[in-house]
Amino acid sequence: MHHHGYAWVGERRAFDRESVRRPPGQAPAATSEQEVHDRYREAVAVFPTSDLPPIQTAHWLMKPPSVIRGTWKEPKEAGEWLGLQLAEFEPSFASEQDRDVTRLVLLVKRVWSSG
Description:
There is one protein chain. The chain is mainly α. The protein is about 45% helix and about 10% strand. The chain has helices at about 10-15, 35-45, 75-90, 95-100, 100-115; strands spanning about 5, 70. The chain has a two-stranded antiparallel sheet. Helix 3 (about 75-90) packs antiparallel against helix 5.
């Protein structure tokens, strides 16, 4: 088993565009509204190459290998990387609760113990 690490830092507006964070799925029916066709075309063009986080974690595996920030055999190594990422970006987290050091340490420990 191995663990991949992915990271995305960007604007909330981009993150909130769910249509490009989902795999395209089936093409809309010909009778669908133009907006539905436009969203589908955008998803087809953007989802496979974008580094935006997918809605479902498993869909990272549908992304190109270039978006992988690291690969580790041991969960502890992946957890250490996660801890470094959290420490680096912690000042930009939106809420005080999200910046809470104890919470972040516990999150990293959970990654270490998985596997």
